[in-house]
Give the backbone structure.
Amino acid sequence: MVFTLGFSQEKNAAMPKVNLDSIVYKTAYGLRLGIDISKPIIGAFSDTYNGYEVVGDYRISKNFYLAAEIGFEKATTIEDYTNSTSKGSYLRIGFNYNNFENWLDMNNEIFTGVRYGLGIFEQRLNSYTPNANSTYFPSQSIENPMSESGLMAHWTELLLGIKVETFKNVFVSASVSYKILISVNDQKNFKSLSAPGFNRIFDSGTGFGFNYTLSYLIPFSKK
């Protein structure tokens, strides 16, 4: 009599499938519009400045945004021998890049940006004092206003800023910019000391700016 002992094993027993995380967080894509609230605040406390600015950006990818600002400024520059006013409109266009990695469904930014700026303005020399003053023959201020319109300024600028979503689709942003002048038209016989959108024009052809904006996102889709 012969006895045999045997066993069998199931082939490739199925392992239970585990879903690690089925939740996908999407962020809003759309048009964001707002205003620079720093300009009317400065204008309320200054006799030499008033202005306003509308800002906007449109998200085209995860980190890139097309961006633009359009506004109006009137600024009076007072120096030792001159008093002048520039006023006009300006446009800045370019893009922002978000360097911040958001958690989950957050939508904040630490951004860098580049802009091209164009300002069209009028320059007015309000008064001037001949630089030939002496104790015996003091110079008198000459108040004979002269103005010239249709002047233009071109520049580029680099930006660094932050943008925080304080409420759903409501953002507060602050940024600083370093401006490099490309070209500017001067009033006849008088150098342009400032240009709308560029601010004060220094001898080095550079300038600085600051923005504090409040904006609202109009979401078109989520990705």
User: Anything to note?
Assistant: The first strand starts at residue 28 and ends at 36. The mean pLDDT is 87. The chain is about 5% helix and 60% strand.
